[in-house]
């Protein structure tokens, strides 16, 4: 049907994101020891402004993620919505800043692919086994559940099913919870994405939601405070030594294109702070 074709196109964006990240890391924009296990080939060259755009995106998201983990002293959960082949869990494990549990959600087809990579590549599976102490490791084609990491196949537009699956994998609504959506809500209708944001606000009294997207998208329904920075601003706030370093990696003739690209996107973050952790100051 038409909607199956549309969903297939949305799933394909997962490969766009991971191949662009793989390429940028191969050039040295940032370090990701795990991207290579999800995308084997470095693939075609990407334009320097694309690489710089991804650099700002990844660095910006990581700064906010790390600030939340610090604020909660890792006494929290992370839920990555539309996670695709994201490698954040492994980074947090290596940096010793793991939340109590890290959840990922994506379409079952993407989840099956990710699980296959994890199953067959020891550098990916080892950290899961190391952080798992009970004898209940669940690993089948459609889901993976360990003490500290789980992947759930679900459609983010079907909230009752999503809620049921998160419960089944022991999500705790009382724990401070960080939601991530990196280029995901834009693929849903505004009605569906606002239902999702409302559901999160209603269900998790102490939470932060980080969304990377075009400016117009974020709807603040039910959230106490919302911040947004366009990527031009984020880029200018990143540590200047590192920005200077990556700007030397590849020559960029047309600065105008990069500026247009950065102005087009933003990072928004919204908080609800029932436990008064001071999340609003992040
Ligand atoms: N967040 C990852 C990143 O930035 O590297 C992947 C981004 S990719 C552009 C968008 C992801 O959202 C895809 O993996 C896609 O399958 C997922 N997605 C979009 N709509 C979804 C939905 N309704 N339910 C579950 N996953 C969805």
TrEMBL record:
Family matches, as Gene3D superfamilies? Vaccinia Virus protein VP39
One Pfam family it belongs to: LCM
Reaction catalysis annotation: [phosphatase 2A protein]-C-terminal L-leucine + S-adenosyl-L-methionine = [phosphatase 2A protein]-C-terminal L-leucine methyl ester + S-adenosyl-L-homocysteine
- Superkingdom, taxonomy of origin: Eukaryota
Its biological function? Methylates the carboxyl group of the C-terminal leucine residue of protein phosphatase 2A catalytic subunits to form alpha-leucine ester residues.
What is the main EC category here? transferase
Q: Name one GO cellular component term.
A: cytosol
Species: Cyprinus carpio carpio
Q: Where does S-adenosyl-L-methionine bind?
A: 57, 82, 155-156, 182
Q: Which SUPFAM superfamilies match?
A: S-adenosyl-L-methionine-dependent methyltransferases (SSF53335)
Q: Sorted alphabetically, which InterPro entries does this protein's record hold?
A: LCMT1, Ppm1/Ppm2/Tcmp, SAM-dependent_MTases_sf
Q: What is this protein called?
A: Leucine carboxyl methyltransferase 1
Coiled-coil ranges from the UniProt annotation: none
